[in-house]
Specification:
The complex is a heterodimer of chains A (about 350) and B (about 100). Chain A has a domain at about 35-220 and about 230-265 and about 275-280: Cytochrome Bc1 Complex, Chain C (Up-down Bundle). Helices cover about 70% and strands about 5% of the residues of chain A. Chain A has 14 helices and 4 strands. In chain A, the strands form 2 sheets. A two-stranded antiparallel sheet of chain A has the order 1-2. In chain A, β3 and β4 form a beta hairpin. In chain A, α6 packs antiparallel against α9 (about 180-210). The longest helix of chain A is centred in the middle third of the chain and has 33 residues, at about 180-210. Chain A is globular and about 65 Å long. Chain B is mainly alpha-helical and about 100 residues long. Chain B folds into 2 domains: about 1-30, no CATH class; about 45-85. In chain B, about 55% of the residues lie in helices and about 5% in strands. In chain B, strands 1-2 form a two-stranded antiparallel ribbon. The radius of gyration of chain B is 25 Å and the shape is elongated. Classes of the chains: A mainly alpha (about 350), B mainly alpha (about 100). At the A-B interface, α4, α5 and α10 of A face α2 of B.
């Protein structure tokens, strides 16, 4: 496409050619692990889709205890393609979190977090936490019996955290139990607070990636390798992957639209066999491993503390792994990464099958 | 695409014109009658006609995605060929025609 008038118009105001030169100068290494580079791009693409479909759903959603469930039923049954956009948003969130996990474990196992990219790891890790909270807050907006039970369990679990647990629980619920106040709060989180945090984190993550450039695995650092320009070579490859992801997401949205349960009743007993979203299953299964009381202390509190310590250690890995920072191989942290990955996968599968 | 001439001088028909309503009719016939449970909310259009249109659109979307990927792949190969030849960089001394 050649638009000389538009080009000139832009060139008079901005350094358009300079920007083009910059995009062409940015290089992407080519090697046998370069497949992992695409997982970050896919996540970014899914975030964009989530923002767009979320905006559409927000036009019709009513965040009130009496109308929330009804408004979702109306979106699904009365609005044109409402069922599709809701299903697309649901599967988009599932895929987004799945790709965030894949991107995270890829970064961990390839040691891409090593010096000087510690803050890239930190922003990505926090982004995963924010996305999980995005998922939980979006889940409650449905206001059906499963969502109510899941949020009760999740906020109740956070309440078992020593010292600040009570405050976290009260802050999240906005009341003693999960009520209409919680729905209002979760809506505010889902449509205002979390999107701003996400935008800031994504912006910072991209800026840091631009500054440091793409990481190359330690084992390939000394090898001679080819580099391709980001634009247009890598960009076109990214575009093809995004198209496939769009196709898979649309297929999932059409073939497996998520169910809507009965309207939540805070006074009714929780329904049987309620399972949280797949990314919480490993946590739930871990909690089940602990007895009710250990040495006179609350077992759940000890479990939450241990899980929190394990997550904190995971977050701080780039600062502990000094061998990688020096450019040396660190098999210990590779094994730690493999153990984390296997534990997460095993517990998720066990939770899904039980 | 093969075309069938019906009668000399008459409009020529494409096979797709017949195929689409036939597949649609078949799809509608083999669809089970909708029987929504009392407490279940329909999260997908229940009429066979709507369902057919949706599945057809999904197939068209996949065809469009494959087509776009083929075009982008061709474009990428052409860019790589030009880059290998080393003629992708702008010549600074090239004379300009005003």
């Amino acid at each position: 496409m050649n638009c000389p008038k538009l080009k000139n118009w832009l060139e008079e105001r901005y350094d358009w050619e300079g920007m083009k030169r910059f995009a062409k100068r940015k290089l992407v290494p080519e090697h046998r692990y370069d497949l992992w580079y695409y997982t970050g791009g896919i996540t970014l693409f899914l975030f964009i889709l989530q923002f767009l479909t979320g905006m559409l759903l927000a036009f019709y959603y009513v965040p009130h205890i009496d109308f929330a469930h009804k408004s979702i039923i109306e979106i699904v049954t009365k609005q044109n393609l409402g069922w599709f956009f809701r299903s697309f948003h649901h599967w988009g969130s599932e895929l987004c979190i799945a790709f965030l996990f894949i991107h995270l474990f890829g970064t961990l196992l390839l040691k891409s977090y090593r010096k000087p990219r510690e803050f890239l790891w930190a922003t990505g890790f926090i982004l995963l936490g924010v996305s999980i909270f995005f998922g939980l807050s979006g889940y409650l907006l449905l206001w059906d019996e499963r969502a109510l039970a899941a949020v009760r369990v999740a906020t109740g679990g956070a309440g078992n955290f020593p010292f600040i647990g009570g405050f976290i629980k009260a802050f999240l619920r906005g009341s003693i139990d999960v009520t209409g106040d919680t729905l209002t709060r979760f809506y505010a989180f889902h449509v205002a607070i979390l999107p701003i945090i996400t935008l800031l984190l994504v912006g910072l993550h991209l800026l840091l990636m631009q500054y440091h450039g793409m990481s190359v695995p330690l084992s390939l650092e000394k090898e001679k390798r080819r580099e391709i320009p980001f634009f247009p070579n890598f960009f076109y490859k990214d575009l093809m992957v995004w198209l496939v992801v769009l196709g898979v997401l649309t297929t999932l949205a059409v073939l497996l639209p998520p169910e809507i349960g009965a309207k939540a009743d805070p006074l009714a007993p929780p329904p049987e066999n309620v399972k949280p979203e797949w990314y919480f299953l490993f946590l739930l299964e871990t909690l089940k491993l602990f007895p009710g009381a250990i040495l006179g202390l609350n077992g759940e509190t000890i479990a939450i503390l241990m899980v929190s310590c394990a997550i904190l250690f995971f977050f701080l890995i780039p600062f502990f792994d000094q061998r990688s920072a020096r450019g040396e191989k660190s098999p210990l942290f590779t094994w730690i990464g493999v153990i984390y990955l296997l534990y997460f996968l095993t517990m998720t599968v066990v939770g899904y099958l039980s | 695409m093969r075309r069938i001439g019906v009668v000399k001088g008459l409009k020529r028909f494409s096979l797709f014109r017949f195929a689409q309503p036939m597949v649609m009719a078949l799809f509608v016939m083999i669809q089970p009658a909708p029987s929504p449970a009392a407490d279940r909310i329909a999260v997908f259009p229940t009429t066979p006609f709507d369902a057919y249109i949706i599945y057809e659109s999904l197939a068209v979307l996949w065809l469009a995605i494959i087509g776009l990927i083929v075009i982008i792949r061709m474009k990428l190969r052409e860019i790589e060929r030009i880059q290998e030849m080393g003629i992708d960089k702008e010549d600074k001394d090239a004379p300009l025609l005003q």
